Amino acid sequence: MFKASPNAYVIFDEALNIVTCNDAYLSAVGRGSSEEIVGRYLFDAFPSPTESASYNLLRRSLDKVLTTHERDHIAVIPYDTSQPGDRPNMRYWSATHTPVFDASGVFRYILQHTVDITELQRLRERGARELVAEAGVLQRAREVQAANQAISAESKLLRDMFKQAPGFIGILAGPGHHFILANDAYERLVGGRSLVGLTVAEALPEVVDQGFIDLLDEVYRTGEPYVGTNMPVSLRQQDGDEPEKRYIDFVYQPIFTDDDQVSGIFVQGHDVSDKVEAERLQTLRRRELGHRLKNQLAMVQAIVNQTLRSSTDLMAAGKTVSERLLALAGAHESLISGSSGKTTVGEIVRKTMEVHDDQRMPRIRAEGPHMQIASRPALSLSLILHELSTNATKYGALSGEGGSVSLTWGRETDGDTLLFTMTWREEGGPPVSPPGKNGAGTRLIKAGLAGTVDSKVEIEFEPGGVVCRVTAELDSFGREEA
């Protein structure tokens, strides 16, 4: 938009060197290409005696902007823009000097909007006989002003859209990948750090060893875009913090010059960490549901077999099977709904063991004091006991006739810390040995008691049977979370 504007624009840095200009400006000052003036000191590119009115008018206006960082206007300034050695060509100009700030509010450049009013000035000098022509020029000036206002409004709209875009957007320049633009979402993603003016490696040193600089180099070298999906990136949110893992979808799109050379890279993307985490939890829940369903079916089979083995009356056996299946359904409902409010360890043990033990010939000996437990660790404890009981019924002490389980719980002191402890010990079952790998059930057991501090689970495969010990800090074990 800057380059194609019909209005003449040129940009100076703080040392009054010419940074860039558009084609309309080159045409107005009679230059064939930007190479003739870009990079040169203003008064070297367009020399004027330091004692001249032209020099002093222009210098005062520019110095005012440099000092106050406020816009300044020159209504009329005569200035010879001819090249050294050419015949002098005095023209009349109207100029506006506007300060330009970077994204962090630091003054960087001066934008000069120049209008050649030589024709208008000469008409004025010719007098009233050409007022009609002058009016035409003034009308054109008003039209130019209206066009400039429209362009300014459009530029502001584009800047606001860029700044407020929900996804992160940045523009990198050169092979060093310098940030020349970065919107608010980009800076929020990296903990509010200022990016403009720095290279990616300078602004985000933690990403250097994560492969992103290599990706940018490849895009700059080949001119081929790169699209990343669910890409992990570790970003530091504050100085001194450990980098925090996030997941992003993004594209690195090369930016080309008119002669098809890569000059920079457009970066656009979204933080999809919440989506990735939701997908991970959904996958975990599906696996847990499948594991739980298999355990439920195994338990139904074990209940029926166990009941029929010890019953001589089929009607009584049928009733017992129905009662146990109802108890199993209650335990399952408790697991998936996460009952609210406190309960006791004894109640959890009683409800869970109803499903796995024969009340007429009990083989699980449970003993421990009255202890309250909060809802989150209560659900975890129910799950641990459910998995231990299932494994014992399928493979351990409860799978045969002579095995038994001792289940005890209580309080212990470890230094200054009071602990909840529970021990599950199997005896009289078939020989056991550690599994080749941890299945879903073992992982659920070792996950410990949710909502507690320093929860630990130790499982030992002793010759006489499995021994599982669960510990947790007692205060958090009984405290309901807010």
From TrEMBL:
- Which PANTHER family does the entry link to? HISTIDINE KINASE, TWO-COMPONENT SYSTEM SENSOR PROTEIN
Provide the protein name: Blue-light-activated histidine kinase
Assigned EC number: 2.7.13.3
- Please state what class of enzyme this protein is: transferase
Query: Which Pfam families does the UniProt record give?
Result: HWE_HK, PAS_4
Q: Which residues form the Signal transduction histidine kinase HWE region domain?
A: 288-370
Q: Which UniProt keywords apply?
A: ATP-binding, Kinase, Nucleotide-binding, Phosphoprotein, Transferase
Taxonomic superkingdom? Bacteria
SUPFAM superfamilies noted in UniProt = PYP-like sensor domain (PAS domain) (SSF55785)
Q: Where is the PAS domain?
A: 1-63, 156-225
List, alphabetically, the InterPro entries matched: HATPase_C_sf, PAS, PAS-like_dom_sf, PAS_4, Sig_transdc_His_kinase_HWE
